[in-house]
Amino acid sequence: EKGEGSSSVSVDFPVHGIVPKEETQAASYLAQYPQYDGRGVVVGIFDSGCDVAAEGLLVTSDGRPKFVDSVDCSGAGDVETSTVVKATVTEGSAQVVGLTGRTLTLGQWTNPSGDYRLGWKRGYELFPDALVNRIKGERKRKFDEKQRALEASLQSQLDDLKKARDQTTKHKKDVEHLLEYSKEMYQSYDDPGPIYDCVVFHDGNVWRSVVDINEDGDLTKAEPLTDFFRERQVANFGPDIRLNFSINIYEGGNVLSIVTAYGTHGTHVAGIVAGYYPDQPESNGVAPGAQLVNFKVGDSRLGTMETGTSLVRAVIAAIRSKVDLVNLSYGEAANVADKGRFHDVLSEMVTKHNITFVSSAGNNGPALSSSGCPGSTDSNSIGVGAAIRSSMMHAIYSMRKDVPDANFTWSSAGPTEDGALGAVVSAPGGAIAPVPTWTLQRNQLMSGTSMSSPNCTGTIALLMSGLKATNIPFTPSTIRTALINTAKRTDGVEVFSEGAGLVQIHDAFDYASKYSADLASRNVHYTVTLPSFKDGARGVYLRGYEESNRIVETTISVKPVFHQDADNALKIAFEKRFKLVSTVPWVNHPEYLLLMHSERTFNILVDPTKLEVGKVHYGQVDAFDVSNNTKAFSIPVTVIRPIAATQGEERSQWSHEFEPVKFVSGSIIRRFVHVPAGASHAVLTFKANDIDSQKQFVFHSLQLEPHKTFTDQYKFMLLTEGVTKSFAIPVAEKLTIELCLALWWSSIGTATVEMKIEFHGLSVDTNHMNGNDLIQRLDVRSHLRLQELSPVITLKVVRTPLSPTASDIRPLPDLRDVLPEGRQIYQMVLTYNFELSEERELRPVAPVISTVLYESPFESQFWMIFDSNKYMRFSGDFHPKFHRFPKGRYTIRFQLRHDRIAQLEKYKDYALILETKLKSDVKLDIYSDLNTALTGGAKFPSAGKAIKRGDQRPIYVAKLADSSIPKGALAGDVLTGTIELYKKVLPDAFEGIPFTYTVQKPAVPKAPSAAPAPPAAATGEKPAKSAAEELQEFLLTQKVEFLRRLIKAKKFDAYLELSSPEQLGTGHDTHLPLLLLNLDYALAQPGTPQDKAHLITEAADRIVRTIDQTKLAVFYCKEKLGTKPEAGEPAQGDNKKEMDEQKDALVRALHEKAKALANSFLATSEEKETSEGQGQGQDKGKGEAAPAAPTPLNALEVALADLRNWTDINSGDDAYVSLHLKRARALKLPGHVLKYTAKTAKSVSAGGEAGDREALDQLVAVVRGLGAEWAHWASYLAAWNILRFPPSYALF
Length: 1292
Fold this sequence. Notes:
This protein is an alpha+beta fold. It has 29 helices and 61 strands. The strands form 14 sheets. Strands 1, 2, 14, 17, 18, 19, 20 and 21 form an eight-stranded mixed β-sheet that branches. Strands 44, 46, 51, 54, 56, 58, 60 and 61 form an eight-stranded mixed β-sheet that branches. Strands 25-32-31-27-29 form a five-stranded mixed β-sheet.
């Protein structure tokens, strides 16, 4: 029975929108052809990695394995396994010691050679960031429980000691040290995560590997894995982590590749393409019958960003795997279109190996020319825009009301910089699809062209499945032709983001079937270029003010391109007749074109002079094959006619106010303005009217410069009735700027918006200063209006050039780095070194190369920074980021890859730039006039000064004082920052112009001429030595040096003979160098610590007795107080060298004595502990035991007190820390031992030196010795020691 207030509801749910299929006709196609659901088609997924065991991605609709292969192309999952060992048999079990130090018990595996290859991998290098955060949280909770128990136990011990009156202070202090250390360590806790031992072996047929996922060394029940394509094995890192992985083994067993899904993106994409849920078919992907190959191109070291290496490896693997189709839902903005190393290998994959390539158009819209590379820019790609349709609004976005069908606001728009249209087609840009198991959910909603691309890929898989089933041959070109000729345009959606329209796959199949004979016979595609227009453009794109105000005539080149294996007879017979049709009247062209197997050219004329200004206009010349009336190719023509900003009164010149525009959901309004000469910034003002509620708008401005990534500004705005919003943006003069305003696609309702732009223009004649110049004059000019000048120069970064210390070129040793036809790829690794004296934030920059990725001529530009222990701190490539580095010495390894050695050899001396952020910003002093600058008078007034339009005003910049040059900046380094010219007029002040300052060598003042020295008697100095005295002193110095060499050579008998008074002469008992030499002799003697303590103490005491400590103390007291000498006394400085030598000798003697006594005390204590241990449980016999020998503790305490009089032994100096440590060990004070061991370890680890491991391992041993309560800290420290000291540099 229904409860009160309840009502019946429809149980229907719009399931068809979960993974949209109806809009693209995929649903109707599958209804008519259920067997053409992708069967027989293999799709490669170039992405962040797929979970090959995720629900919905296990099998195809006809029961075949869903994933054919799984490959990590990035190298991020690589483990070096070049260490080869033999197993030892213990109690019937084969064991090896892993590189983590764990004993690994092996299973009963077939291994004819008996060789095992070892490596290890940090789990957090394999886990996605979101998973790392979850695992860290779970591990932290468990760690905190143990930490709270430890702190409670220590606090309880401390309370008990405070209550017990008979306990000494040192025991209380000892427990306090333990408590303090545990708390201090907890403050710097940084979970190292799991570290997995890896074992690789050959079973006689294939390479296999086992990963110690439980970190317990027990591998007896582990199933060895082999290359995924062989047996399709999948393992898991455990029920808590739930991350699935597979493996591949390369380079003859030397490299193990652990393949994981780094993030959710790739799995989601794979699910859209081909997910299959037999019990929930509404969740199926578009082509549930297709098989997949996982090509992980997202590098986990870079947060899943793609790299040149991963992309090229993916192409190589895709060709080798014989996939039919590839989806890449990745992309970046590029400087140039249709060029670069990836373009070259992609072209080969598509045109030579008949693999269709589909890619996302990009999410950088809505402004024009925001196309992503390669999806929208590469001629080999079917770029896909992102559409939103009604079914999606209900099923996956839960909107309260439908909005018009559209493309998503953020979907990138063409044309490309070389005039190509951009997106080829569009498809639904959202879906609820599967995600990896580690997310602890089955599926997830995602939106983007990353989703529209796999939706389109799935529809193409349906098309290919049908064509294969009906024996209709196809190529990437014929697939593209079928899509373009049947796509459905959407009312109100521009061609720039939608391309030919929304994919209609049922119609495409009918088209391909109808024209199958013709499509198969020609097996050809067409390249269309404009050879004399803008460096060989692919379309007409008029964007500038001048070019859009004149008639343009240009030549079109059309060339048929056959597959490389096409029969010559087919080429001879090729002849096509085309009718040319323009979609707009302002483009004039020939009516017909007859094309043979050669290039043909013809001219078209574009007349933009009568088109409306301020807007974009598009047309195209379509070539129709007269034999079947289908479109073969098109020539896109885009014209933007910018408005010229108008002049007004002095303060309102160069502005434009646009007519109010009414917006509905998803509306995109574009206005184009010619930026006047001299403009550097613009202020935009918006006001909304007739708006029923607050609405979200996005403003997107964009400018294009030749061969340069588009420059844009992107801002979200919430507009309400009558409220005005203003902000400033930088602009480039003399270029057209697009002002694009869009009501966000999901904002329901309407609004009217007013928009105004006003330009500002202050410029400076130079933006660089040489540190040799005392004063630099800068001329500032106001170009457009009365401006308030308030200059500020701020330097933030120092740029230091680094030259390589080594270069190495060699072939990469595995097939994954061999292009088709056996073309070997080579790598060049350049090595650079630098040192930091303090913690700094920095990044390495590869000049020019760091700014390119897809368009780069190289396959890789990867760098890794290692400390002196080979621990990799950070890595990067395209547009590197700043990272914080502690003090220490570092090595940069920089990799370039190419298949031509000559290309690499040109860069053997390539210099990197090390950009280091300054600890604090440096500001240059700016003055209004030269005299004030020279005298250091009043600086430029902060209130600013007005400059009229057309006027010029000089400002004067003073060089940095030597004391102001940032620490570490050397001559030739460049300080970079900005010069801000405008007085702040808005909350978001105008951005500054880049400014650089070259550091020069500091001036070294000339030393003043020395005044004549007064007579010795007048100053109280000792009289000058005679020549005979100087000779005797010289001879004694030489003898001492010779005796030192005898000690170093351990020729002690010769030393004793030659150091006797008979050999040296008498009167040298107080000669400090000789006394110090005797101390060195004592230190070099063999013997027990107790025996050595006697010799060292005796030698040290002779030094101590020789030095007048009272006189020494008086000298340093006077020096500290600045007391002037009395009459007849020498000046303090005259005796300083002698006194410093005496103090150094005294401190050294006392220190060596204290060390010797500490060693003796520690040895005696350990011997006593050993003898007591051996005597336990034994009959002590008759009579009393002999009294224990006295320990040197009292002598040690006295020695420490004496040493403390002359130096701060608690300063943290390593030598004194060691002294305290030995004393604490002898006294069995674990808290003190931990304190000083930790200090030693911290001291050496801060510098990152090669000897760190011993000190840090000692710390682990000390912590482990504290008992079970400290086990969590012992494990923590041991794990970090493994990570900090890898056996070799990380692999690229």
